[in-house]
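Mods, move this if it's the wrong board.
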Amino acid sequence: MEPTAPLEEGTPLVPFVKPGTDPEVAAIKQLLKLLDKAAKSARTYGTKNPVAQRFFQQFYDDLAKHLAQHNRLALLVQRNQLFFKNEVVYEPERDATGDSFAFKMYSDGIRELAFHQGLTHEDLSFFLEALWGMPADETNSADVTTDHEEDDDIVTRLWAKNLETITLVTAEELVRSSGFGLDELELQTQGYMSMQVGSLRELLDRERAKTTVEKEGQDGAPTQTAEDPSGSGTSRNRRFQTNVVGYDVSEREHEALTQEIQRETERDATTYILDILTAVLASEPSPALLTKLFDVWDHVLDVLIRAGQWTLIETVLTMLQEAETVRPDLSESHKQQVAGLFDGLSRPERLKAIGIHLNRTPHAKTEGLLTLLLMMKQDSIPGLCSVLAILDSPTHQAVVMEALQTIARDHAEPIVRGLTDKRPTYVRNLLTLISRWNDPRFGDSVEKALRHPEATVRREALRILATLRPSGSGVKLVGLLGDSDETVRLTAMKVLASGQYNAGFSTWAPFVTADDFHDRSPAEKRAIYQALKQTAADEAVPYWQGLLTEWSWTNRKKKEELALLAADILGKLATPAATAALELGQKKGGTAVRQACAAALSVANRQQRQAVPSAANS
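Not the wrong board. Structure tokens:
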């Protein structure tokens, strides 16, 4: 083995050349050693491994330099060896056939490999992936075509890519071009593979040119040359040449085929594969293959969910729902497989994938997503709640909530448990769900949300509770007077002031008689007195009467403010007990209080006079 200097990143390859050795042959040997190392590293550690990338980049750089000087590099492939200028430039170690890319190409029918000037990094990467395939952990799971492509041989993959800078000569071409009807073994034993020509491609071109000249002598057809095999004066890509061995098409047919291939190339690969799978489902007679087909459909659903292809998923699921109609001969085991596909829609990893995709794509379309979610069963409810909890976009949250509104109506335990969650947006969404159901049975659960640390959640819970329980005991609502947020307290008082709740004065007393009650805002104190009037009525009159007649040297101004509010509320209460309290305040209160009591008495008397005709009419 020729010694080389240690390989470092960015260092050009300088092989040691023995005296009498062709330098170009020595350089090709070193080049193929780099390719061998790159291939082994990629298969072992993956193509993203720094070592594999370094070998690959060095191989590409040196190959590009060679092509810049010599235009092309043609290598003959024979069993487990590569030849260049009739010398072996690559041969793996003994018993290493499985790791030999020469044997890999030979077994797939390749007899010559040629790299041409202009080779790009992407073309070379595709050739190596076609040769060995991607490592399993680097396969793009979002690409539904991966499994299909892995079934193709190297020639098919390269033909599909139609590379200009990497060309092949196959054993089949040699057999067809021989003109003697010999098989491949006979060609090799008769020395066809070792003829002294620049490359097998040149050999094939000679045979084709010879055939064309003979045909021209017979029918006067235009001469075709190796450089311009079509005779039109322009060099065509080999994939579209009309003189490829084994095909005889007219120019019109050639153009039609070209257009058809172009249409197929532009077609969406995923849709194309789904159409094929659907056709197989409709026509495949083998029960064993149908069993495998439904396993493939399960994988397809995984891929489509991760890619967020909701409309395609909707199409697939609709088709699977109609599978028994399309194939009435399905066995029970196949029907169970179909049912299993729907049961598996709510697998945790799939629900997680939905949430990840939606958050990663904030403006992703949601058309078809609701259909997918509604096809899930009740065991999906906890998972859907988890998805709802992590979603960032209100639009995406709305879709999941709409699905839960239908699925979880009669199985709301996960919704109720979620009300204790610390994430305010999530809890508000759950409260919205409960409000849509408008079921009083959830009242106790909503009450628990009144203790949530987030004020916005408490306000929402209070609003919904008032809807679910529009009347009854107001004791729990009075307790919200101790809430730290003023808007929550005001909302609670507004609900109590509706007149549909009852709460005795003993429930209110700890709040309205506390020293800090004077420090509340005027708006809040007025709202509290309004609610107190509606829920306790005459039970609160002694408290208000005390405010009207109380004299104090401390907090005099604040207490006088309370007395004025009390006079106003008593006037609106307008009961005999309230009127008596106002009359007493008019006698014993201070100047401002007496004036407020007089005004309140006028209001009370007016209400009483209006009430008398109303009672008489009734």
